[in-house]
Amino acid sequence: MDAEELLDKYAAGERNFHSENLSEENLKGADLCEIDLYGANSAGVDLSGANLTQAKLNSTNLTKAFLTDTKLSSISASSAIFAWTDLNGADLSWSTLNSANLNHANLEQANLIGVDLSSAKLFMQT
User: Fold this and answer.
1) φ and ψ at 33, to 5 degrees?
2) For residue 92, what is the domain's CATH number?
3) Number of independent structural domains in the chain
4) How far apart are CA 91 and CA 76, in angstroms?
């Protein structure tokens, strides 16, 4: 699915985009509150400055995605893959990231207040 199709369906009221392939798509600045991307392949997607408040990202692959300054508060992202993802300045407050893979993710200036990181992988290269 390309970005234009997703945005059209979202604007029409659809929220369920389970297992869709959004790899490398440009969704910069999109308003996608409460979107459900369970199991989606979103590797390399650009969601910089987007609003994904209360999104469901469980088991979503966001490897090498661009989530700079993205609103991700109160998301559910259990077992999601954020490896090598740029989360600089992202708002992850009050989100569930248990068992998520955050290896090598850039969390600089990210808001992590109240985040559930139980069993998350957090290897950071120095």
Assistant:
1) -55, 140
2) 2.160.20.80
3) 1
4) 13
